Records
---
Amino acid sequence: MEPTEGIITRLTPLTETSLIVHWFTEDAGLIKTVAKGARRPKSPFAGRLDLFFTCSLLWSPSRRSDLHTLREAIPSTTRSTIRQNYTATLLAAYFCRLLEHAVEGDHPEPELHDLLRRALDHVDTSGASLRALTHFEKELARILGLASPRIRAETVLREALGNLPPQRESLLATFAPDRSFPFPEHPSDRNKL
């Protein structure tokens, strides 16, 4: 059994009672584990597995596949504020998907784990912003050795990875200024209200 710390990046139903939990761990990088019985009401995993949680986990590596067995998970950080705001949830999911797209499974990437942890903590405390999105992309490009002073991080990542997760377009639309009223309000319109 392997102990480590990991951030939950995705949850996928496997059966009526089990989940596949995708983790970005400090020691093993991106891994997938099966949480058997996690969807049962009286499961030992009840309340311990949710998106963006950081947990101390114990898992058994599989010899036959890349789907390992989760033995125990104890949350240390829940980041509940993220799940209370749709834009924050979308931005956090974008960070996780972008990392999943950029790294190979079962390969340790401690600097990327730290980047994801810091990014999720920032969104949890300060909310979602275009600045957080672009900073994450810049840092990811730097860590991957793709940074260029003349080319935007988004362009470099798009060229290196083939494409970026679709959440990015929704986020950009959300962060764009409201264009529903393109003209300044006329002073006489105030009296009509």
---
Amino acid sequence: MANVVVIGSQWGDEGKGKIVDWLSERADVVVRFQGGHNAGHTLVIDGVTYKTALLPSGVVRPGKFSVIGNGVVVDPHHFVKELALLRGQGVAISPENLMVADNACLILSLHRELDSFRENSNAGLKIGTTKRGMGPAYEDKVGRRAIRVADLADPEVLKTKIERLLRHHNALRRGLGIDEMKAETIYDELMEVADEVLPFAGRVWERLNQMRRDGKRILFEGAQGALLDIEHGTYPFVTSSNTIGGQAANGSGLGPGALDYVLGITKAYTTRVGEGPFPTEQLNDIGEYLGEKGHEWGVNTGRKRRCGWFDAVLVKQTVQVSGINGIALTKLDVLDGMEEIKVCVGYELDGERIDYLPSTMQGQANVQPIYETLAGWQGTTAGARSWADLPAEAVKYVRRIEELIGTPVAVLSTSPERLDSILVHDPFQD
């Protein structure tokens, strides 16, 4: 049995929640390996809707073991809040079915303040962050001054680490014209939730390696999308963590040999939230149509998503960078009824045709999409559960996408309902 990594192959919001939920039903362990509570999944089980932001989606299913890995930055107050929210819906969550990596770094109030100040400042470059503190928390992690989950267990050492952290942050705050933060404020905010967080803390790397040796089936659940990867995305308009498939190993404490199959969740068109380049964006009736029919707004933020045609250049690049073995194509039904559908098959930059997204900010902003026009279909794909249920032109569209991105469709999702899917290849049986 394979261990499966699920990532978004675009800018996030590809419909990972449904696919992760479908796979988590058959997994033994579900692992979050990067990001924070700035991205979420909507899960509908037996008619009940659950929304997760930080907790792995496996927590809503009895009998599953869920893990927040070391690659995640954890807001301890949000952690406690989300626990209470799901428990209020009748979900049983305890250290018996959830573990948080004791070496995961924490998001503090000063991180949220700094994130918001930068994003709202006219002097800075607007990235389009959620202002929830992920970026500054990752900065402290790399700067080797972060507070980690394990530090909550030793109040005296914690005080020393807070003072060291504030030597950096208060100098920064003075320069930005923000009032300095007192060490007692940070200490008190952490002690307020320490007793609720610490029972879940543990050596995730050790537990996961043992579970792998025991033959447990592990599902690695990514947040955001690969085009927001700090290294391989549309830099600097990216998130602050690695979102590509390889991060599942590093962000959980398992070696790369544990990653058997990478499934890239891919929307049948393209959306993005926040600032940054978007070559196929449609600032017209097409974009409005896709947004309205696709209900394109963020699960946790409520932000409206920008919409455009499918960009095969970007997805092909993601397939290669992330080692994607197959894709789950979602929201095909949103394209039902369109007369024609366009797909980006290349770019033009400075009079030259290219088949990749440039690394420079200027190049990314200036590429012009080269489109191929395909016939639309008047029939419906919504609710289809076999290829025979699909209009012929819809099948041609799916096959053309496979050709352009260089990887097969493993799962075709035809509505938000879990059972409305066509399984071509079972990732767990790789």
